[in-house]
Amino acid sequence: MRNRPEPSVVKHPHVHRLIENVEKVVVGKSREIELSLIALLSGGHVLLEDVPGVGKTMMVRAMAKSIGAEFKRIQFTPDLLPSDVTGVSVFSQKTMEFQFRPGPVMTNIVLADEINRTSPKTQAALLEALEEGSVTTDGETRVLPDPFLVMATQNPIEYGGTYPLPEAQLDRFLFKFKIGYPSKSEELEVLNRVESRHPIEELQSVLSLEDILEMKKEVKETFVNENVKQYIINIVNATRQHHAVFLGASPRASIALMKAGQAYAYMQGRDYVLPDDIKYLAPFALQHRMILNSDAKLSNATNERVVYDVVEQVHIPTGKETAR
């Protein structure tokens, strides 16, 4: 299988400072931090599929502290109810009225831990929050804070007691990727850092929520040439035509890939998107949005390999074709 691309050299000063700050806590995960920041700046969400104990929670907490954001964690369990996520109205004997108590999803950064351990009904409680940035309870729609980022984790499906996420919910996540085990040298560095005190306790914010909101506005102004848009469409359409795919990526995938490209280009200090930006991001943005056919599964094909195959086959526009 082809090697995954390495993280880029970030040129935007705010983003560079933010990544450096998170790396005081998280060792050797530059690419994963970078992808998470792309999601934050483009209004997307991230699905992390990995085994317990590899640093998922620490990465999310470090990101939240680095921007002064409110952070909450939801531990998904089989008995968790939708109202435990979105909130519930409680009758007050003092005021003789119902008062809404916000659920943990109503914050800036949410860690939805082990999301595939809960029932589909409770999983669905996140759908509106992921797509619309709001939740509806008791017939009233409540807008979530901005910025808003959900970092959901799930155990591998082979683990017992898990409920596979439905396609509609998977499609709401901008990226899906794994953190993976550290190397021996990285694990030694982790031990050295936490020997006397955990670095998360001393981490300070380097940006404010206002900085992030301003950066999100600038990301939306990043130029996308028509040929780059066509390149995105061609990649997504190729997933629908691939011989190993039963159900290809949706038009929502095209939108997600374009927005991710804008954020990625902005992080490089550019005001325009390059085809290479799209090529780099495509595996992370598309692999969870496809269903392989039975023949492909029998031959041990994976969604990730299919996306890499698709990207290699689709023509890349030249620099002249993507100029302003």
Could you explain the architecture of this structure?
The chain folds into 2 domains: 1-217, Rossmann fold (3-Layer(aba) Sandwich), CATH 3.40.50; 221-324, Magnesium chelatase subunit I, C-Terminal domain (Helicase, Ruva Protein, domain 3), CATH 1.10.8.80. 43% of the residues lie in helices and 15% in strands. It contains 14 helices and 11 strands. It has helices at residues 13-22, 30-42, 56-66, 82-86, 120-124, 127-132, 167-170, 184-194, 209-220, 226-241, 251-267, 275-286, 294-298, 303-313, and strands spanning 46-49, 71-75, 87-92, 97-102, 109-113, 134-137, 140-143, 149-154, 175-177, 245-247, 291-292. It is globular, with a radius of gyration of 20 Å. The model has no long low-confidence stretch (mean pLDDT 88). One of its GO terms (molecular function) is ATP hydrolysis activity. InterPro entries: ATPase_AAA-3, CbbQ/NirQ/NorQ/GpvN, ChlI/MoxR_AAA_lid, P-loop_NTPase.
Give me a quick take on this structure.
The protein has 14 helices and eleven strands. It is of the alpha/beta class. The chain has two domains: 1-217, 3-Layer(aba) Sandwich (Rossmann fold); 221-324, Helicase, Ruva Protein, domain 3 (Orthogonal Bundle), CATH 1.10.8.
